[in-house]
Amino acid sequence: MNYRTKTYIAADWSEDKDAVDILHKWNDNEYWSLNFVDAHNLTSARDNSLNCSIKSSLKRRLDLSKKFVLIVSNKTKNLRSGGCHKCQEYNSYYKTCSREKSIDYRSYIQYECDIANRDISNIVVLYNSTRVNKSLCPEILRSTDKHVAMRHFIYGKSDWNYTAVKNALI
Question: Which domains does the chain show, CATH number per domain?
Fold first, then answer.
């Protein structure tokens, strides 16, 4: 039996690396009182791994997580990376995998959200924006309780909203 003690952070790493980095900065700095253990620190997958291998690694991390954090931006719900049809082992004519793996057309984000929705009760959706726009969120997580903007305007300038994020994560 696995004890769920970790926090799983899902994001579009090409668009939202800044938001993931600020969460880690707040977590790693003694001044800030954010406190979580990132499930991604447990195992890693190589960028050249097969999509199904990466999903298997993601599943192991999700199985150890008690909290799921999705960072949403303009492109999140439309991401397609991770689907079998994007893999070099996929035969589009026969719609099969040359490694005889099962076919899964979901993107990494869709896969993570599906598992989190099914297996994790504490789900937080953070928007890398000054406002919450649920239409940008994958549909399966739109009805979750916690949707929070990670940024706010202060002195006419957009800045990170530590207090709102911390309150959502506790």
Answer: 6-49+65-77+112-169 (3.40.50)
